[in-house]
Structure to design on (177 residues):
């Protein structure tokens, strides 16, 4: 009787070990960080850039759209450098979540000239203060999808005044006396 009890315990232990053995060597997917949207993200110190994408329909002008989650209790000025552009951008990341998509007080960052077609990847560097910066490989998407249609860059107004065409004079025939 004791032999049966011991055999049952050994079999139960072997089954338990066999059934859970995969968890001992397989990586846990829930521990891997990934971007769950079309955009990409990077973390620099207390500043977490999330869902960064560039929207452009022509490859000439693009809007860099992203959100910043600042986990610090004070604001940080984030420096942004875009591959192929000499211009540097700065945004203020307040504590909490700040979006740069035009839905609130912060407009997207206009990149002109963009110099890359939709479907390409653009390296964008984010950094603030003394923190070591990080580069995100940001996808360039079009405004074809309804979610992105309002984010397509609009033409900038020119500083030069536009002159309206003057109507041409039409000859009139007046009666003569």
């Amino acid at each position: 009787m004791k032999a049966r009890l011991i055999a049952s315990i050994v079999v139960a232990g072997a089954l338990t070990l066999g059934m859970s053995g995969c968890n001992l060597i397989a990586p846990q997917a829930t521990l891997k960080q990934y971007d769950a949207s079309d955009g990409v993200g990077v973390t620099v110190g207390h500043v977490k850039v999330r869902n960064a994408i560039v929207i452009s329909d022509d490859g000439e002008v693009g809007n860099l759209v992203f959100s910043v989650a600042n986990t610090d209790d004070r604001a940080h000025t984030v420096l942004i450098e875009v591959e192929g552009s000499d211009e540097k951008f700065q945004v203020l990341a307040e504590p909490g979540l700040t979006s740069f998509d035009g839905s609130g007080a912060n407009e997207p960052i206009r990149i002109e000239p963009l110099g890359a077609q939709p479907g390409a990847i653009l390296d964008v560097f984010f950094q603030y203060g003394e923190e070591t910066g990080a580069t995100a490989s940001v996808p360039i998407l079009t405004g074809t999808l309804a979610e992105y249609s309002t984010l397509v860059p609009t033409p900038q107004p020119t500083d030069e005044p536009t002159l309206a065409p003057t109507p041409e004079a039409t000859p009139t025939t007046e009666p003569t006396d």
Notes: Helices lie at 2-25.
